[in-house]
Structures are given as C-alpha cells and as structure tokens.
Amino acid sequence: MEERITSRKNPLLQQVRKLLASRSARQKEGLFVADGTKLLEEAVRFFPGLQTVILADGTEVCALPEHVRLVRVPQDVMASISPMETPQGALFVCKIPPRTEFAAKPGMLVLDGIQDPGNVGTIIRTADALDVPLVLLEGCADPYNWKTVRASMGAVFRTPVVMSDWASVQSGCKAANIPLGVTALSNRAVDIRSAHVHEMALVIGSEGRGVRSEILESADRELIIPMNPHCESLNAAIAAAIVMWQIRMGQ
Questions:
Q1: Judging by DSSP bridges, how do beta strands 50-56 and 90-95 pair with one another?
Q2: 199, CA 20 to 30 Å: which among 43, 71, 158, 242?
Q3: Can you tell me the distance from the alpha carbon of 222 to that of 52, in angstroms, rounded to the nearest whole number?
Q4: Residue 161 has what DSSP assignment?
Q5: For residue 175, with 0-12 CB atoms within 10 Å meaning exposed, 13-18 middle and 19 or more buried, which class applies?
Q6: For residue 212, how many other CB atoms are within 10 A of its CB?
Q7: HSE of 184 in the Cβ direction (CA atoms, 13 Å)?
Q8: How far apart are CA 100 and CA 135, in angstroms?
Q9: DSSP single-letter state for residue 250
Q10: Beta strand extents in the chain (DSSP E only)
Q11: Is the C-alpha dihedral spanning 93, 96, 97, 100 positive or negative?
C-alpha cells in the first residue's frame, strides 16, 4: 500500500539523510541508501535486502516486491533529501548484507586504501563484469556509500562485497600457497604482462600513496603496468581494470 509523506521532518526522511551522510550511521543501523530508477531496477532483480522505496510525484518505476514499503513525496521534498543536484525521483533503503568471510583465491584483486567512492564503485563494477574476486582492505571507501553504489552501476546488488584486513589476507594467502603481488613504481617491479598474475593475489593501492609499506615489504613480487615514461601513474580504477583484464587473459 502506498503511503504519502509531505513533511521534511518526517522520521523516515531524517533517517535517509543520516544514512546518506554517515558511514557510522550506516554501520550502526545496518542500512544504506541508493538513488535512481535504474539502480532500483537492479535492486529489485537481484537484491533481497530492498526495504523501502521513496518516489517523487510523477516518477514511475518497475513493480516492487510485496514486502517493500512504498512512499510518495512531493518534488520539493525529494529535492531536500536527494544527494543529487538533479534528483531522478527515486531513493531506496536497503539492508546491508551479512559480512562475507574472506577466502583466499588465486587471481584475486585486493584494494588497499582506495578512498574515492567513485573509484571503488567502478572497480566493483569491473570485477563483477570480469568475474574477478575482489577484496576491500581497511581504509577503502565504504562500498555502501551512495556514490560507491552509483558508480558500481548496481554491482553491489549482484555480487557480495568482501571486506577484510591485511593480516587475514596475508595469512589466508600463505596458508593457500598463493603468492602476493603488488603494483609498485620501483626498480624491482616487473612488467605485469610477464607475470602469472592469475595465480596471485594482487594488491593495488591509492594513486597518491600507493600500497602501504607493510604490504610492500611482505610481497612476493612487485609489478608494474607498462606505460609512457613521461606518465607517473594511472587512475586507480583504470589500473585495476588493466590488472583484472590481465588476470582474465591468463586464466
């Protein structure tokens, strides 16, 4: 049954604002918010944790599951809660899925300290498309930040997001006899095309700082993506896409 809310101070709308703004609020409540009609379609198709849909007047969407709460709001109220300058007319609240336990796998990509939600979301999207196992270490952007979800183009609804800490990844790979590779700009780094990256767990760090020294020092192999000598680095999401393609090519 469709509800109608007209007050901007309604508790549901206040909750949405808080979830959009705060990672700690998302973690505390076990909920996150996404926006857009296309992403809503992906959530309806693939994600059982969809709970509440808020639509602006005049916005039509696909049929929703019976258990989903549907709320209508005026256009100005939607504009007051939407994170977008030009709202698409749909916001929806989802339950954060249970944590997926880390399991070491060859051909796995590990993200270290990548803090930009757009980059993390794009990497999640690419990993989903190429079927490459992905792990987010501590210090990475929240995969349930609305910007991450949007950049993932619904991949967070289709595949579990694995988060872990470096100690668990390191010990898990050691126990499974999976060598650790890191992307690095160093004299020791070898061309990624000559390495068997599909047999490794490969770590990518942020553009500014790279892979942290703790990980770099424990790596079995340092790798570099060949590029024009006058270029210092690549965008993290682009570098990750190249690495994942190379993983797939070796399989």
A1: antiparallel
A2: 158
A3: 46
A4: P
A5: exposed
A6: 17
A7: 22
A8: 10
A9: H
A10: 2-4, 31-35, 50-56, 69-73, 90-95, 108-112, 134-136, 162-163, 180-183, 190-191, 201-205, 221-224
A11: positive
pLDDT string in tens for the chain (251-residue length)? 799 999 999 999 999 999 999 999 999 999 999 999 999 999 999 999 999 999 999 999 999 999 999 999 999 999 999 999 888 999 999 999 999 999 999 999 999 999 999 999 999 999 999 999 999 999 999 999 999 999 999 999 999 999 999 999 999 999 999 999 998 767 777 888 888 889 999 999 887 778 888 998 888 888 888 878 887 778 899 999 999 999 988 76
What are the C-alpha distances in Å from 164 to residues 104, 137, 171, 175, 235?
A: 11, 5, 12, 16, 23
Cβ atoms within 10 Å of 122's Cβ, excluding its own: 22
Could you write out the DSSP letters of every residue in 100-145? PPP---TTEEEEES---HHHHHHHHHHHHHHT--EEEPTTSPPTTS
